[in-house]
Amino acid sequence: MSSDIILKTQQLSQEIASTYPLDAMKMDAYWAALNDLQVKFYLQITGLDFLGEPDGDESITITNRGHVICDIGQWRINAGNPHQDYIFPEDTLLRGGESVTVYTQPGARHSFNSNRSIWNNHGDTATLFNHSGEVISTWLYGKAAHMHVMISNVHYKGDEFRTEGDEYVELHNTSGDRVDITGWQLTAMSNTHSFTFPSGAIIEPSGTVRVYTNRPPSAANEYSVNSPTAIWNNRGGMCALSDYLGYEIAHFAY
C-alpha cells in the first residue's frame, strides 16, 4: 500500500507542475488530494494488546506518524469479525505524532463496549478503514500471520574469525500487512541456541528482519542473540521458527 500511495503522490505532483497557471479552486482541490494521500500513508496500526495486560482490557493503538492533523471521524477498526467494529466519532482529530487507543471493555473514551474478549489469543487480523471504506492499515498476529512469514536466509558462514558474530537469520514478510512477531522464537535445531523476539517486534509490509549472532543492531529491523560463540554450523543444519504459542511456522535447512 505504501508504494502505491507514493506513486499516486508523485503522479499528482507532476500533474500540478504541468498545469499552470492554477486557479484557486484547482489549487485547493490538489492540496486536498495531497493531504488525503499523506493521511493514508502516515496513519498506521502501531500496537495490539490482545492479552489485555496488565489489567485484562485488550486494546489497539492507531498512530499518526506524519505532521498533518488527521480527521479520523467515521473511520472504522474491524477486529477480524464482520460484527466487531469500532467507529470513531465525528470530528475525532489526531495530530502529528499522536496516538489513540481503543479498548475492548466499556468505560474508556474509545471502546468497543464489549464485556467479552474480541481479539483471538491464537491470532487475528485488525484492519483500519477510512470514512470511504478504503483499507489504510492492517495488522496480523499469531495464526493469521503464519502463511505470510518465511525464513528467507540463514547466513551461516560469517566473516568474523571464530565467533562469526555477523552470522544472521533473515525473516521475510510476504504480505502487504504489518506482522506482529512479539514472542516468536528462532531455534537452531543442532544446538540449544534460541532467540525470542521482544515485545513490539514487527515486520513491515513486504519487509525483512535479521537476527545476528552477536552484532549490535544498527536498524529497527535488526536483532542480536548476543552469543559469544557461533550458532550456525558451517557444515549444515536447520533453523526453525515458531510463534508465541509454540506452533512451528517454518523451518530452513541449509
Automatic annotation (TrEMBL):
Which InterPro entries has this protein been placed in?
A: Lamin_tail_dom, Lamin_tail_dom_sf
Q: Which SUPFAM superfamilies match?
A: Lamin A/C globular tail domain
Q: Which Gene3D superfamilies match?
A: Lamin Tail domain (2.60.40.1260)
Segments forming domain LTD:
134-254
What's the protein here called? Intermediate filament tail domain protein
Query: Which species?
Result: Vibrio ruber (strain DSM 16370 / JCM 11486 / BCRC 17186 / CECT 7878 / LMG 23124 / VR1)
